[in-house]
Amino acid sequence: GLSFYTFFLVPYVLVMEYVEGSKRTLVGNLGLATCLTLSGVYQPWVMKFLGDWKLFNWIMFSQMGLIVIVPFILPESCRWLISKGEGDKSVKVMKKIAKMNKKEVPDRVYDAVLEMCLKQKQLNESMPSYTYLDLF
Length: 136
Description:
By secondary structure, this protein is mainly α. The chain has helices spanning 4-18, 24-50, 53-62, 70-73, 78-83, 87-100, 107-126.
C-alpha cells in the first residue's frame, strides 16, 4: 500500500532514467517480469516448508529491509540535480555513469551541464519560495 512508492516506484523510475532508451524495455519490463515470476514460484514452496503463515510473512516482508541500501547503490537523479542547480554533483554522477558504461563523454558536455545548472540556480533564486503554509 503506502510503501509502494518508496520500495518500488522511486527506484524503478531512477533506473529507467539512467538506462539507454533502446534498453528500457529489456531492463524495465523483462527484469520486472522475471523477478515477479521467480517470486511467485518460490513463495509457495517457502510457505509449505515453513508451515506457519506468521513466520512466512516475517521472512517475506523482511526482504524490504534491503531497500536501505538502495541510496548507496543508485545515484541521485541528474535531472533533479540540474533542476536544483547542483552542477558539480550532477557532473560527478554523470562521470560515474560514463565510467561504469565505459563511455567517453566530451568535456564540452560537462561544461554545458555546468552552464545550464548555473542558469537554473539563478532562476531558482529569482523565483519566490513556497511552503505548505502558503496553501492556507
